[in-house]
Amino acid sequence: MKKKDKSKTQPKQKSKQKQKAKTIAVQTIKGSLDVTRSGMGYVIVNDESGDILVRPNDFSTALHGDVVRVKVIKESQRTGKKEGKIVEVVSRKQTEFVGHIQLSAHHAFFVPDTEKPMPDLYIPLTDINGAKHKDRVVVQLVKWDKEDKKPVGKVVSVLLAENENDAAMKEILAEAGFPLSFPSAVLAEANNISEVLSIEEISKRRDCRDILTFTIDPVDAKDFDDAISLRKLGEDKYEIGVHIADVSHYVLPDTELDEEAYKRATSVYLPDRVNPMLPEKISNELCSLRPHEDKFTFSAIFQMNGNGEVKQYWLGKTVIHSDHRFTYEDVQEIIETKKGIHDDAILLLNSISQKLRKNRFNKGAINFSSQEVRFKLDEKGTPIGIVVKESKESHQLIEELMLLANRTVAENVAKIHINKKTIPFPYRVHDQPDKEKLAPFIQYAKKYGHVFDVSTPQAIAKSFNTMLADVHGKPEQHVLEQLGIRTMAKAVYTTENIGHYGLAFEHYCHFTSPIRRYPDVLVHRVLETVLAGQPIIDKKMEEKSKHSSERERAAMECERAGNKYKQVEFLKAHVGEVFEGVVSGVASFGFFVETVAHKCEGLVSIISLSEFDDFRLIESEYSLVGRRSGRTFKMGDKLSIRVIAANLEKRQLDYEWVIGE
Q1: Cβ 86 vs Cβ 146: under 8 Å
Q2: pLDDT, tens digit, for every residue of 401-413?
Q3: pLDDT tens figures, 270-292
Q4: Are 463 and 452 in contact (CB under 8 A)?
Q5: How far from 621 is each of 362, 594, 625, CA to CA, in Å?
Q6: Which secondary structure element, helix H or strand E, spans residue 331, and what is its range?
Q7: What is the pLDDT of residue 649?
Q8: Domains of the chain (ranges plus CATH)?
Q9: Residue 2 carries which DSSP code?
């Protein structure tokens, strides 16, 4: 009897396997797992098909926030509601957790501090990193196969009881899915990069080392990713260079460094630390445009007149040498006193930047003012003071030149077409206002005498600017600015170029901060290929853009949470004291007040007001009104509050209204 030729049967088997794989793919849906406090899960799907309920026993190895594939096992014909079972974890949101370790003679378990239920992690005794029983620790999830009953972890660091600050900040970062340390492979790759600028590479670049160049950054900055150069070319003719750290020269696609940078997608700035996108060797050494050092840069160089009119520009790779490191405070002093090192250059650049700024607003950019809260910290990171910083001309000098570079790069790339289509590129876009969201705000602004023209998006922007100019310095300025900002869409990264409404730019991207933003690295890579005449077509660019937008939102939430923690920590030392405040929000359960001196927001609860009157919410008026007295608390009202509680764990401040103070 002849044996069957196996080679002839294999194609059929492969065909069956492909068919089986295709069937599984059809039956599974990709989404992110949201675990509720009760332990029930929902897979959030981006399309219109609806979320899928997943019971705890059907999570497989998925945790809250993970991107998963779920198989629908039940669907109600009446309601369309679906129930499913997770079959694959595509990517983890979080791999590091803060909690407590429980030690016994033979094993250790980690119990996470989280509101979202998740299993304890098994820790081999060889991986406890010196932790003792009940210590608060950071643990990394290292393995969790389907056959494992418990996920396996290792202790990364022990959090000391006397350093609550450190633990709180690490917890904020970990919960948002930002790694607290770099994998050894990433650090090794960074450390292997040569610090020597090769003569061969320098020869390929435009040499700008003999041109006056300097950086302007916050006083505590270490990663200087942009520098400005200036030289006079003739009567009313200047060359202004915007030089950006050439991160893409060092961080190459498909390397460990690149994968880690993409995963993080952004640096996170907390009150007492930076959680960087790139290791320190890259961000603070190789790529930081430190004074008196030659550095590789990617530059936008403009020929302009004193009115800020661009006559021509050049984009390309350069080598620079920064002559001086300015802080914003240094530059502001030169602007105000007209004296200081390189004062002629600073004053000329400031004059040009102010003209660029005026021209931008004339073309329809919206002039929302910005305030930044900075904490004065002691050596342990405890806040001992809060400073409110406003945007001054020194900040605007840099801002306008960066905006010009970003816009010019986006315009340049947008011109490139392949097969009559633009190439995939991570534009920074800002959609026009939603008229439904805008309507209640317009009605509210009308009470203060501001009339909006809503005939076109440009008319809306002009109305905003007229209102913002009119309210400057008036009691209602804060409330109208805050409510106005809330009506606006959020800026995002996408390959669909719809323009940037808030800046009034048809084309815009982020080119100027590749040390701290991954989309800027993508922009550099695309621009390099465009300038070489061989544009790359990255089919995953939209996916990368969405990921970058999501990580940016997570970073902003971290920054808000970090600021809130420090505010609560600061006012904890002032419980019982009275401060002047402004009503910053109203709800059915009370109203929020922001202290004038520190910008610390807390809640005056409706319960604490019940002894005075029965208050109800009037949504259209953004106010609480007493039924008997008619007493109102509305957004923008000034009043006095007493700090009655400061809960660090919940990052929550409670105030009470103080009458007649």
Answers
A1: no
A2: 999 999 999 999 9
A3: 999 999 999 999 999 999 999 99
A4: yes
A5: 32, 19, 10
A6: helix 328-337
A7: 87
A8: 18-91 (2.40.50.140), 96-161 (2.40.50.690), 189-429+496-561 (no CATH), 435-488 (no CATH), 574-658 (2.40.50.140)
A9: P
